[in-house]
Amino acid sequence: MNETAQKNKDFVHLKILFFATLKEVVDKTEIEIEFEKGKTILELKNQLVLEYPRLKDYLPIVLVAINQEFAFDSDEILESAEVAFFPPVSGG
After folding, report:
1. pLDDT cut 70: percent of the chain above it
2. How far apart are CA 81 and CA 35, in angstroms?
3. Which of 30, 34, 75, 76 is buried most deeply by CB count within 10 Å?
4. In the Cβ-directed half-sphere of 76, how many Cα atoms lie within 13 Å?
């Protein structure tokens, strides 16, 4: 297997969606990235803070979904996943 094929095998393609105030923080509604295979939501959050430092204050309290199902920081992200970040919702 050549080096490029090996590299692609070790990464997964992700579509990341941002909603409400989070899309204003990153100035985008969605991004697409290659992310190391076998990594978790928490590790994705840490990676996103490197690129979007203003997210740091929001990520500990956001709700996360993988492929439209709620997820936790310890959940592994699978190939071609859609990961959505929602700010906490309040109200009555």
Report:
1. 87
2. 10
3. 75
4. 8
CATH topology of domain 3-86: Ubiquitin-like (UB roll) (3.10.20)
**Burial degree of 75 (CB within 10 A; 0-12, 13-18, 19+):** middle
Nearest to 26 by CA among 6, 4, 3, 56: 56
* 79-to-8, 23, 27, 49, 90 alpha-carbon distances in Å: 11, 23, 25, 21, 32
HEC profile for the chain? Answer: CCHHHHHHHCEEEEEEEECCHHHHHHCCCEEEEEEECCCEHHHHHHHHHHHCHHHHHCCCCCEEEECCEEECCCCECCCCCEEEEECCCCCC
Tokens 């076998």 found at? 38
Q: What is the pLDDT of residues 33-63, one digit of tens each?
A: 999 999 999 999 999 999 999 999 999 999 9
